[in-house]
């Protein structure tokens, strides 16, 4: 049973108002505890991912565990620097003054995580929110049951229970929680629910970050190194069985490139997953029966070129490529979020750009080309949360790049210092002194506002 939402929010608010999260040493201690939690329970985290997604140990380290632990270490390293007031540029008029930005915590923030990378999508934002001095109500996704339960069990053992409570539950409980006032809401999940979260936040004019989804396109032209391209596209698509928010959703290319792509993909998939990917330890399962059934209906689009096998008892769907897909097929109408890659043929880069621009702005866009003009064309003529040229997903792990969407794929961003910035209100501060020189320089503003004073 989740805790009573009203009581939980009030407890968290009282804890915030006690002022303890203002202390940098308190934040540092909590972050060290978070790191300790990961280190002391490493095998349980890996096991929870195996239980939820049948994720292999090595993929769990690569795509989840190493990312969250590195993030806490990085945050601890820069904590003092990030939390210090920042001196900003000043003009001649303020030459004697201090012009500063103070990083205020927002207060009580709510972090709602999604199930597909259930550790990092829940706990990366929490790390930044703690560093910025907030109290955080942590709401993991109920869909990834094992990881959600583990987070709910461990967080209270390591972190301050009043400042960082975990709230579990599904739609009903989250709807109840969202009736309360928060000072910031950070949501990861679908665009449809993102709209509900924003509507709830509007009640109190609460600022939000919405990390949403959408269809991230890939364009491949004839100048791309096709051997490398095939590997990088398939890796980005089939890791986590396609349940990645920035997975390549569909491929746009010429008929010639499509034929080559499919031919090479057959070899690569056999090399990676063997003759039957179902037996490969490196291929995940679909998170729930609901998503499995949804994906099965999407298989009816286009012509099957590779895969299409399934086993409902394991929620297994093999790596699948569909060709001759038209833009009106059902698979082109919603985010796929599974191991199915449709290919839509286009005649040129211009046609691909037109196709992409006629749809909602994607979370990520992938371009494979050696032609600098084509690259410039895509970078300047399309809009998306991020672009990765000649690879997939790798932009996500560059901490100096903010990660987030635009339009229907989201608002706001995070990662590295950007997470700290997201959870900090930048308070503008001007500090003047009583220096007589400063007073005389500024005295023209006092009445009477004579022409002589104005001309000076
Ligand atoms: P989900 O079902 O885990 O839902 C996400 C969270 O929203 C959960 O905590 C859930 O409890 C809560 N929720 C669900 N319905 C709700 C409701 N009606 N009211 C309030 N809260 C509700 O995950 P999902 O929505 O299936 O996630 C998949 C989507 O998330 C995809 O579109 C994917 O692209 C997107 N996503 C985006 C990112 C990103 O970083 N931009 C990352 C992962 C997933």
Strand content: 15-25%
Identify the overall geometry: globular
Helix content: 40-55%
Q: Please give the alpha-carbon distance between the first and last residues.
A: 71 Å
Question: Number of helix segments?
Answer: 16
Order of strands side by side in the largest beta sheet?
9-12-13-8-7-14-15
Provide the structure class: alpha/beta
Mean pLDDT reading: 96
Tell me the major beta sheet: 7 strands, mixed
Q: Which residues form runs of ≥5 with pLDDT under 50?
A: none
Query: Tally of extended strands?
Result: 17
Bound molecules: nicotinamide-adenine-dinucleotide
Radius of gyration, taken over Cα atoms and rounded to an integer in Å = 25 Å
Structure description:
The chain has 456 residues and is an alpha/beta fold. Helix content is 42%, strand content 17%. It is built from 16 helices and 17 strands. The chain has helices at 5-17, 24-40, 42-53, 57-83, 120-131, 145-158, 171-177, 191-202, 226-238, 255-273, 289-298, 349-357, 372-381, 417-422, 436-441, 451-455; strands at 86-87, 98-105, 108-112, 135-139, 184-188, 208-211, 216-220, 248-253, 303-306, 310-311, 316-317, 320-323, 340-345, 364-368, 386-389, 410-411, 424-431. It has a seven-stranded mixed β-sheet with strand order 9-12-13-8-7-14-15, with helices on both faces. The N and C termini lie far apart (71 Å). The site of nicotinamide-adenine-dinucleotide (NAD) has 28 residues, from helix 7 and helix 8.
């Amino acid at each position: 049973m989740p805790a009573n939402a009203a009581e939980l929010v009030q407890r968290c608010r009282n804890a915030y108002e006690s002022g303890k999260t203002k202390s940098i040493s308190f934040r540092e201690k909590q972050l060290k505890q978070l790191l300790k939690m990961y280190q002391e329970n490493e095998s349980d985290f890996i096991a929870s991912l195996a239980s939820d997604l049948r994720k292999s140990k090595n993929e769990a380290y690569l795509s989840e565990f190493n990312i969250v632990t590195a993030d806490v270490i990085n945050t601890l390293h820069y904590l003092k620097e990030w939390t210090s007031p920042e001196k900003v540029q000043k003009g001649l008029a303020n030459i004697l003054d201090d012009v500063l930005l103070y990083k205020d915590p927002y207060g009580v923030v709510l972090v709602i995580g999604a199930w597909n990378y259930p550790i990092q999508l829940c706990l990366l934002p929490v790390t930044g929110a703690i560093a910025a001095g907030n109290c955080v109500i942590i709401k993991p996704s109920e869909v990834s049951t094992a990881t959600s339960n583990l987070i709910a069990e461990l967080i209270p053992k390591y972190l301050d229970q009043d400042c960082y409570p975990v709230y579990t539950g599904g739609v009903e409980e989250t709807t109840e929680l969202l009736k309360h006032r928060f000072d910031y809401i950070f949501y990861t999940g679908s665009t449809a629910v993102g709209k509900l979260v924003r509507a709830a936040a509007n009640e109190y004019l609460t600022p939000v970050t919405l990390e949403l989804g959408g269809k991230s396109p890939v364009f491949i032209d004839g100048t791309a190194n096709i051997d490398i391209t095939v590997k990088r596209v398939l890796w980005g698509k089939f890791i986590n069985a396609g349940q990645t928010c920035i997975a390549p959703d569909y491929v746009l290319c010429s008929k010639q490139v499509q034929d080559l792509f499919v031919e090479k993909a057959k070899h690569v998939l056999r090399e990676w997953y063997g003759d039957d990917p179902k037996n490969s330890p490196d291929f995940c399962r679909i998170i729930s029966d609901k998503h499995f059934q949804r994906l099965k209906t999407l298989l009816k689009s286009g012509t099957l070129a590779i895969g299409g096998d399934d086993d409902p008892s394991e929620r297994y769907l093999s790596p699948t490529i569909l060709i001759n897909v038209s833009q009106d097929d059902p698979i082109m109408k919603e985010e796929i979020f599974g191991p199915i890659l449709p290919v839509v043929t286009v005649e040129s880069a211009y046609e691909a750009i037109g196709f992409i621009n006629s749809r909602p702005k994607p979370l990520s866009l992938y371009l494979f080309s050696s032609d600098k003009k084509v690259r410039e064309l895509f970078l300047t003529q399309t809009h998306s949360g991020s672009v990765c040229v000649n690879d997939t997903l790798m932009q996500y792990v560059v901490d100096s790049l903010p990660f987030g969407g635009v339009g229907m794929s989201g608002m706001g961003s995070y990662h590295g210092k950007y997470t700290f910035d997201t959870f900090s209100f930048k308070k503008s501060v001007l500090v003047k002194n009583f220096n007589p020189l400063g007073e005389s320089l500024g005295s023209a503003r006092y009445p009477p506002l004579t022409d002589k004073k104005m001309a000076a």
